Amino acid sequence: MRIHCKLLASLLCLGGVLILYLFLGNAEEEPHVKGTPKANALQATSGHGRARPPTPGHFRAMQDQKAQRHSKKKNKKMSEMKAKGPSLREQEKKRPTMPEEWMHLAVVTCGDRLEETVTMLKSAILFSKKRIKFHIFAEDSLKTEFESKFKEWPSAASRKYEYNIYPITFSVGNAEEWKKLFKPCAAQRLFLPMILKDVDSLLYVDTDVLFLRPLDDIWAFLHQFNDTQLAAMAPEHEIPKIGWYSRFARHPFYGTTGVNSGVMLMNLTRIRKTQFKNNMIPAGLTWEEMLHPLYQKYKNYITWGDQDLLNIIFYFNPENLYVFPCQWNYRPDHCMYGSNCKSAEDDGVSVLHGNRGVYHDDKQPAFKAFYEVIRDYPFEDNLFQSMYYPLQTKFLESVHTLCGRIPQVFLKQIEKTMKRIYERRVIVHVGPRVRD
Ligand SMILES: *[C@@H]1O[C@H](CO)[C@@H](O)[C@H](O)[C@H]1NC(C)=O
Ligand SMILES: *[C@@H]1O[C@H](CO)[C@@H](O)[C@H](O)[C@H]1NC(C)=O
């Protein structure tokens, strides 16, 4: 008897969800549109091949296309839902709780960094709560490859992001001159404030970064900026004695060890508005005005390209920089000479940065373990079974290295992240049943 009641209640509940889905489906889905191949083609050809910011018009056009397709798809979706009810049900219930603010994530990809970039983006959406707009600057030859990678991701993942792919370009000032001055890929990120005119703030990361906790958590630093801060980075090194800048740099740099630009938060609105102090003219210069002369002045002294320019800029304008702790940009430097990142020892690694190519060789297997498990994780599987346990196993194989000897530093935060996600899912799942 009780079983019958329960069954009936479950059926009613499922029915309710189905009806809700039909009514809310359109309204809910439309803003989640991601860059369709058509829309991207449209964008790439507009503006004479220059990168253009995603204007509201573009997104609206995409939505219209999607809406048309949507009504045709509705019936198909109904039958799909009947087939695999529970998993879709879970997702439906999670939707209304998704907050509306978008986070923006930018990356510049050249050469053979496609897989690395896709793995980084995957780590961002696996753990994040708010939705993310990806701004991907890539060589034209990579565009279709990105598009087909995104198509492989399941629809539950697609709801969490939109993307735009832009060509590598200096679409401000004299583009030809810029191209001659900079290596195209290296300096692209310096131009983001001018290219992404409609974006207020963004997180820029190198392709070899992996998020081990929600992007929301690093995004929160933006709200901690005081009135003058407009960018945030972590120190390049924790120990001046062995840091690169403190030993070798022939140009000014921020603080005692310089900053690493592989993970960089930017309030673009502020960067566009600010007059920056410099040692070229007594008056301040805007970001856009400053880049060219600064490069001219220092080009014979810089080694690491745009990161050096950023260090020079913030040497002259220290009040504009927020420095976050090393756990948010954790590199082999933090453990290969012994553990020296205090914040990661306390809280675990939050953002992993496998520079020096360590995801692709065998020098730092501790870093490579993360890369491989995130890359190979089949989206909809159980996180503990298909990611955390394989990670632990792989990590154990790295104990012969200095970095591999501190599993508590590497694993603490990602374990917490997974527990939190698991709890979110379980609560969503159990909630209604407790009510009946
Ligand atoms: C960035 O700065 C502008 C201007 O000060 C401010 O209005 C905006 O809220 C800031 N953005 C974030 C995400 O804090
Ligand atoms: C903001 O913080 C920076 C770094 O701590 C500091 O140099 C700057 O003076 C602060 N700005 C304001 C307006 O308090």
From TrEMBL:
The organism's taxonomy opens as:
Eukaryota, Metazoa, Chordata, Craniata, Vertebrata
Q: How does it sit in the membrane?
A: Single-pass type II membrane protein
Q: Which GO terms describe its biological process?
A: protein O-linked glycosylation via N-acetyl-galactosamine
Q: Where are the residues of the annotated region Disordered? A: 32-96
One GO MF term, please? UDP-D-xylose:beta-D-glucoside alpha-1,3-D-xylosyltransferase activity
**Where, per UniProt, does this protein localize?**
Membrane
- What GO cellular-component annotations does this UniProt entry give? membrane
Can you name this protein? UDP-D-xylose:beta-D-glucoside alpha-1,3-D-xylosyltransferase
Keyword annotations of the record? Glycoprotein, Glycosyltransferase, Membrane, Signal, Signal-anchor, Transferase, Transmembrane, Transmembrane helix
Q: Which family does it belong to?
A: Belongs to the glycosyltransferase 8 family.
Q: Where does the protein principally reside? A: membrane
Q: Which InterPro entries match?
A: Glyco_trans_8, Glycosyltransferase_8, Nucleotide-diphossugar_trans
Ranges of Basic and acidic residues composition bias in the record: 77-96
